[in-house]
Amino acid sequence: MAEASNLQEELARQEKEILRLRSLLIAKDAEMAEVKGRLAELEHYGQRLLVLRARIVARVPFAMGLARAIYRLLPRRLRGA
Length: 81
Prior knowledge:
- This protein is mainly α.
- The protein has one domain.
- Helix content is 90%, strand content 0%.
- It has helices at 2-59, 63-73, 76-79.
- The termini are far apart.
């Protein structure tokens, strides 16, 4: 009888641990989905910037060189470094 009681207790502990781990997995899945969504936003924004850069270069060929020169002339604190 004691052995059956011990098995019941062990089974209950294991079920509790399974529920705990399942909860952690669900939380991690939600966190991963959030990170993937943010990454998709950043990739989209980066793509838009590349398209904008291409349009500027196409219209004003020396624009990027001029922008780079101005950036180098700015003090470090204004560049965000």
